[in-house]
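Dear H.,

Thanks for agreeing to be a second pair of eyes. The structure we're designing against is below in token form, covering all 424 positions.
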């Protein structure tokens, strides 16, 4: 007697996978931009219409694909990035699951043109709801253009879950910003509804940050620390960049933006008393870890990763932030101050050394800075832990950090659209 179990058709399996990978148009943007980065592009253009629901298109000048790969890339578990499971622990690409394109194609109408350096002609492919409609040779330059139209047109229930065009556009802009931040050497362009809303020249991280955000360069403090386990680089916003929301917190692990409230908390707490209560500093911080010590495959969208020793990374981050801020705000420590006063009673009560061009915390007198000598003393005397310190946390792994609502630095919808979406 036949049983009740049967294998799902590939198209259904892809649609189910799409439920995880493709949550909204911004997910398509993320996957296409990541593929363009992985393809070694130096210039990437993003076009959207109607919050991405009718069009998300990414054009790149990367490696492109030959006719065979152009067809293959739409198959589930089709990837050029890993061969075996162990490769996951030696990964230097953003993608690896080989399911993004198959998932996207199963819930939309897709048109791709792609050409590799070796081929003399490009391949054009059209796929509707996972079914190949057209494959032909066309003329095109090297690189890839993928247009994803009418997302969820074949799954009305999911289409109905999309939010307003404004909200979906905001999510898309956030993905764009994250990738643009992580890859400042790449030029990016963003065209919304036929209008150019962002054009970024490839250059330094500092330029990229100031192109994307209304944070002054002099309010950004260079962070750069290398340990055996983690390399830490990027910029910490000075305390005056702090906001009441967590939106300006950009943490990347091995080139991926990660949503890690625990580690974001480590950074914020490193500011100690320099921050007002319930305010959150702006930062763009990159952690570089041996890929063997980080699991990037714990979530289909890869916005979460797991460190082999998360507690150590927490402690390290916190100390690096303290040390970086301490070194930046060059002020006498409490002990130096009392020594100075004891040895020379007529000396000025405060002597502040300030290297040229550095942020001066005394420019605008802020009581919480000028009176926090012990705290600055504490910052200056922070050692960087060189070994694991597993006993620091006696409580559970995750600190009770409130869930973050991404979007803060341009938090007010209108301002956000107004500021970033004006052509320059
Ligand atoms: P993954 O990125 O996890 O490998 P995807 O489904 O996103 O899976 O892509 C499948 C494959 O298609 C990639 O491994 C890559 O070889 C190829 N590919 C996708 N997008 C591009 C692109 N823009 N340029 C060149 N190759 C691409
Ligand atoms: Mg991919």
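And this is the sequence the design step returned. I haven't edited it by hand at all.
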């Amino acid at each position: 007697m036949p049983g009740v179990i049967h294998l799902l058709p590939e198209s259904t399996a892809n649609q189910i996978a799409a439920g995880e990978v493709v949550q909204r148009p911004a997910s398509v943007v993320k996957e296409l931009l990541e593929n363009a980065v992985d393809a070694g592009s130096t210039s990437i253009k993003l076009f959207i219409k109607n919050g991405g629901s009718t069009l998300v298109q990414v054009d790149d000048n990367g490696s492109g694909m030959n006719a065979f790969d152009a067809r293959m890339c739409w198959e589930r578990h089709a990837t050029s990035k890993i061969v075996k499971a162990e490769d996951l622990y030696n990964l230097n690409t953003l993608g690896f699951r080989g399911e993004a394109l198959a998932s996207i194609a199963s819930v939309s109408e897709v048109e791709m043109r792609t050409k590799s350096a070796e081929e003399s002609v490009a391949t054009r492919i059209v796929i509707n709801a996972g079914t190949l409609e057209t494959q032909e040779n066309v003329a095109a330059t090297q690189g890839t253009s993928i247009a994803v139209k009418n997302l969820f047109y074949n799954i009305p229930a999911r289409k109905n879950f999309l939010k307003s065009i404004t909200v979906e556009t905001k999510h898309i802009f956030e993905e764009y910003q994250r990738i643009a931040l992580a890859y400042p050497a790449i030029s990016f362009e963003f065209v919304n509804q036929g209008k150019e809303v962002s054009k970024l020249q490839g250059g330094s991280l500092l330029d990229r940050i100031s192109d994307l955000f209304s944070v002054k360069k002099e309010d950004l403090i260079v962070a750069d620390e290398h340990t055996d386990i983690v390399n830490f680089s990027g910029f910490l916003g000075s305390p005056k960049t702090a906001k009441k929301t967590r939106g300006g917190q950009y943490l990347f692990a091995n080139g991926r933006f990660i949503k890690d409230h625990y580690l974001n908390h480590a950074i914020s707490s490193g500011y100690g008393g320099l921050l007002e209560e319930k305010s959150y500093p702006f930062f763009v911080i990159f952690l570089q870890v041996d890929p063997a010590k980080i699991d990037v495959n714990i979530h289909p969208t890869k916005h979460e990763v797991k460190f082999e020793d998360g507690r150590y990374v927490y402690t390290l981050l916190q100390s690096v932030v303290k040390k970086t801020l301490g070194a930046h705000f060059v002020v006498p420590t409490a002990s130096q101050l009392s020594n100075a006063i004891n040895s020379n009673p007529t000396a000025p009560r405060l002597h502040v050394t300030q290297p040229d061009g550095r942020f001066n915390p005394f420019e605008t007198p802020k009581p919480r800075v000028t009176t926090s000598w012990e705290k600055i003393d504490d910052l200056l005397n922070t050692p960087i832990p060189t070994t694991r310190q597993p006993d620091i946390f006696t409580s559970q792994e995750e600190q009770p950090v409130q869930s973050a609502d991404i979007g803060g630095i341009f938090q007010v919808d209108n301002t956000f659209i107004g500021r970033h979406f004006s052509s320059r």
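Two observations from my side: DSSP finds 13 helices and 15 strands in the chain. The pocket of magnesium ion (ligand 2) is lined by residues 31, 34-35, 95, 100 (CB under 6 Å).

Warmly,
E.
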